[in-house]
Amino acid sequence: MTINKIDGSTIRNMIISGANNLENNKNMVNSLNIFPVPDGDTGTNMSLTMSSAVKEINSLTNIDIHNVFEAAANGTLMGARGNSGVILSQIFRGFAKGVKKHDELSVAALADSFMEGSDTAYRAIMKPTEGTILTVIRETAEYAIREKDKNTDLIEFFEVLINKANEILDKTPEMLAVLKNAGVVDAGGKGLICILDGMIHALKTDSILALVEGGNKLESEHSQVQEFFNTEDITFGYCTEFFIKTDKIDLESYKDLLQDMGDSQVVVGGAGIVKVHIHTNNPGKVLETALQYGELSKIKIDNMREQHREMLDEMPVSQAVQAEPQKYGVVAVTMGGGIASIFKDLGVDEIIEGGQTMNPALRIL
Amino acid sequence: MPAKLSNKFGEIYISDDVLANIAGLATIECYGLVGMASKNAKDGLVVLLRRDNLNKGVKITTEGEDIIVDLFVIVKFGTKISTVADNIISKVKYTLENITGLKVKRVNLNIQGVRV
Fold first, then answer.
1. Could you tell me which of A358, A334, A354, A359 has the C-alpha nearest to residue A345?
2. pLDDT at position A341
3. Do B32 and A124 make contact, defined as CB atoms within 8 angstroms?
4. Cβ separation of B87 and A39 shorter than 8 Å?
5. I need a labelling partner for A249 at 20 to 30 A (CA). Which of A47, A153, A164, A292 fits?
6. Chosen domain end from A199, A227, A255
7. Is domain B3-115 in CATH 3.30.70.1350, yes or no?
8. What is the average per-residue pLDDT within A26-39?
9. How far apart are CA B33 and CA B76, in angstroms?
10. Which of A83, A116, A123, A264 has the highest number of chain B CBs within 10 A, making it the mutation to test binding with B?
């Protein structure tokens, strides 16, 4: 099946699928979050930003491509959360601007909108850090412009773009040392690719990618990132979540109230029920304030420091020495297999090949 | 007054200029921000600062081991300013605390202009 142009309702499905796919994978994206501040919320932030776009799109009555992109741009702008959210909103603003130059969404228009998205995103920063979502969108856009004449089928074109985007994402650790040290790719870039993956799914199947209850399972290889920040670095210790049954609450002023009590707060409401999520040091105080508005239900409070410690303890450690934690370890620097095996017999925990200088890098030790 | 850290061997003083430079560099890496503005806008004109005198857009006040940072910035039109501000504040706080080991008490952000 070849598709040469996309109409409004398809692009709507694509954006919704993109948002859903991101929501499904947000835990994975969260676990990659190490830059600029390792607070593990990139996936959540991007997903909330996208869901605001979806809400805006769903309220449209006239679905043509310009309207849909305009709504997505507005939605992401209003709902932007976190760095990645703001960047995403700029990308969508650029998309909307790029599409405006064309009457229909063809390969050329798609390439233009990518380029415009990247340009707009770059205009809002003084000193771009490469190796982030910005790099991913820029290089993908540049590639799109180069390739746009070779392809007329949008599915093929989109696939080529996603492959390119993945390729660049894999290179992000080379560009940004923080990522390399933690052994991860950029979280924002990964989030963007999740969105694109969702979009192509919708384009291929002409249906909306469904939400998975509880999200996709976390791939274990990424969870190790958390190792890189200390339990003590968690400023607010208790993850508090509950529902308030009320219809006399002003969400905005309630949010302001919560602002001082912690961070990572999410307050969403509708139809007589308000869901609250906050990281705080005073869960009691938060609940107390909430009680003024109405009945509370499904209260859940987790000690995040404890969780984090447990996570660190359970972490499968890659090196054999560390498999059985012990207070002291003996490491021998040797040359040649014979001496190494003598040391092994003497009960040395780990042998390092000294090489010519017999002076191995501190990192290996 | 320079910020002071002490350990069992002695004391470490970090001058306000150094803190201002770190804060300035952290700030300009933030998304949504197009420049630092001079805080001495006597004549009411906001001047976009060049890279080498970045620290003019940063005011540092130290109280022992606590730092209070005032930033004067210009943001890009068409971004959600409140979110951009949140991002800048958390980035600056994280970077300063991470690099210097001092405690950042407050980061105040003054948005002096928007650029289209």
1. A334
2. 73
3. yes
4. no
5. A47
6. A227
7. yes
8. 82
9. 6
10. A83
